[in-house]
Design brief:
It comes from Mytilus galloprovincialis. The chain is mainly α. It is built from two helices and three strands. The protein starts with 24 loop residues before the first strand and ends with a helix. The mean pLDDT is 83. Strand 1 and strand 2 form a beta hairpin.
Length: 150
């Protein structure tokens, strides 16, 4: 017989190794196929766990189907894990971008503040020079008027 999942050949025992009799039952407790002699000799206390081989084969088919479902679930879990990792990377990228933008804003503010300081210094120098010029003109004017009045 060939295993459909792997393509490998598998052999199936039909007779008991110990008694040479056809296997006709299955002990779920010991997970083994048994003959009538094994049932009465070794599995008397397992009566609640004994089923026919036919029923065990149906359960095995169900188990094979379950394996397929489990494989699908494992694949889905791997995809979910990748999505979670991707989300973590996106979150990290967003945090890095936020820090980069904050640094850019700080640099712009530093540049603007430096320029504002330069403009303030220039404006105050112009103001001081203008005031001094007016003072000199006013003093000259007062001096000239005083000279005329004398």
């Amino acid at each position: 017989m060939e295993d459909n999942r792997t393509g490998e050949s598998i052999s199936i025992k039909t007779a008991c190794d110990e008694h040479g009799i056809d296997l006709d039952s299955y002990c779920r407790w010991h997970d083994v196929a048994i003959c009538k002699t094994c049932l009465t000799s070794f599995h008397e206390k397992c009566s609640d766990c004994i089923i026919t081989l036919k029923k065990a084969a149906i359960n095995a088919k169900t188990s094979t189907a379950l394996d397929g479902v489990l494989t699908s679930i494992d694949g889905a879990l791997e995809q979910i894990q990748r999505v979670i990792e991707d989300c973590g990377m996106v979150s990290t990228n967003i945090e890095e971008q936020e820090k980069s933008v904050q640094k850019s804003v700080q640099n712009i503010r530093f540049t603007v503040n430096k320029r504002m300081d330069e403009l303030e210094e220039k404006l105050l120098a112009n103001l001081s020079e203008t005031c001094n010029n007016y003072k000199v003109k006013n003093l000259d004017s007062v001096y000239y008027k005083n000279k005329q009045n004398e």
